[in-house]
Specification:
Blueprint (H helix, E strand, L loop, with lengths): L3 H10 L4 E5 L10 H5 L6 E11 L5 E9 L6 H8 L1 E6 L2 H8 L17 E4 H6 L5 E5 L5 E6 H8 L2 E3 L30 H13 L14
């Protein structure tokens, strides 16, 4: 199974600034990150995983959706975004097998190429590109701190409007400074090229030996 060490090694290889944060207490789900870290929900991102049936071939696949902690996107909007016939939250055992992360603690990095990954468009607009965001690592006792732009680029997530018709959850609208452009974001079909591009952006300021951030609170 993938864990914090797997992610750390991959990001070091790409010279991407990041930090693995030790949590004060173990968590069962990434939705608990804001309370554990003492941060607004908008700074803590969760990858929700859905099982879909293809509208044409009837084949099954998983899709990931990156949203702020505590927020659940309308399933119908996710279904339309990926062109699925049916959609439902994926079973934990299926999430474990396909993503190789513990269900509920999925990191949006190092996911299989066959798995489409979406991100809430409003979340992208609300977060300044240099802000540090936190996400799960597959482990109950750690979190990943990484700049928003690096996470967006390395994940290859496709921005999608998921809040038309309101998402439910406890996202704090005041957590971000308001919409702003962040430039081009990579598409899911080219995640490895996106990783290389993001590495180039971060390499100039990466520290030698350990890629670390000074994490603002």
């Amino acid at each position: 199974m993938k864990d914090a060490l797997t992610i750390h090694r991959a990001l070091l290889e790409r010279e991407t600034l990041h930090e693995i944060v030790r949590l004060p207490a173990a968590i069962a789900h990434a939705d608990e990150l804001p309370r554990s870290l003492g941060l607004p929900a908008g700074r803590c991102l969760v990858t929700r995983v859905y099982a879909c049936n293809d509208v044409h071939r009837g084949s099954r696949f998983l899709v990931g959706v990156i949203v702020p902690a505590g927020v659940r996107p309308p399933a119908e909007r996710v279904r339309l975004a990926v062109g699925a016939r049916l959609i439902r939250p994926a079973r934990p055992d299926l999430v474990n097998t396909v993503t190789e992360y513990a269900a509920g603690l999925v990191c949006p990095l190092l996911l299989p190429e066959s798995m489409p990954l979406l991100i809430d468009e409003e979340t992208v607009g609300e977060l300044p590109v240099d802000d540090v965001v936190y996400t799960a690592t597959g482990e109950a006792s750690t979190a990943l701190g990484i700049r928003a732009l690096d996470l967006f680029a390395l994940s290859g997530a496709k921005p999608v409007d998921l809040r038309n018709g309101r998402m439910t959850g406890d996202h704090d609208p005041g957590a971000g400074p308001g919409p702003r452009e962040i430039g081009q974001i990579a598409k899911p079909r080219a995640r490895e090229q996106a990783a290389g591009k993001a590495a180039g952006q971060a390499a100039g300021s990466a520290t030698s030996g350990r890629a670390r951030l000074t994490l603002p609170r």
